[in-house]
Amino acid sequence: MFSFHREAQPITETHHVSRSVATDRGRAPVTHVKKVTDFKRAVKAEAGESVVFSWSVWPSRAIRDAGNEKLKTDPRMKPSDMPFDGQRMIFGGFEVLLDTDLKKR
């Protein structure tokens, strides 16, 4: 799964993504899943599947919108062997409320 992100990173950079982050749940067992929805339940993950939470940082909304349109048609972003079920992906955009990135100071 992470090889897909590593391969996509140089491509997304050509479309002005300034940062990409991909995570998984690590090795901690999920024992609290009962009635509260978590990521695994939200995407109906099956036994042996893990959930990857990732995001990209764009310099602005306008650059993001233009870059996303270009990424949709970029043939390099269509791997022959997709490592995940794209129909279970959850998409969203967010306004920054707090950013503690010390490099910006």
Please outline what is shown here.
This protein is of the alpha+beta class and 105 residues long. It is built from three helices and two strands, in the order H-E-H-E-H. A two-stranded antiparallel sheet has the order 1-2.
Element layout with pairings:
Blueprint: H1 2-14, E1 19-23, H2 39-42, E2 53-57, H3 61-73
Antiparallel strand pairs: 1-2
Key attributes of the depicted protein:
105 residues; alpha+beta; Alpha-Beta Plaits; 2 strands; globular
How many domains is the backbone divided into?
1
Mean pLDDT: 76
Helix/strand structural class: alpha+beta
What's the total count of β strands? 2
Shape: globular
CATH topology: Alpha-Beta Plaits
Specify the CATH class: Alpha Beta
Distance between the termini: 33 Å
Question: Would you give an account of this structure?
Answer:
This protein is of the alpha+beta class and 105 residues long. It has three helices and two strands. It has a single domain (2-90), classed as 2-Layer Sandwich (Alpha-Beta Plaits), CATH 3.30.70. The protein is 29% helix and 10% strand. A two-stranded antiparallel ribbon has the order 1-2. The termini are far apart.
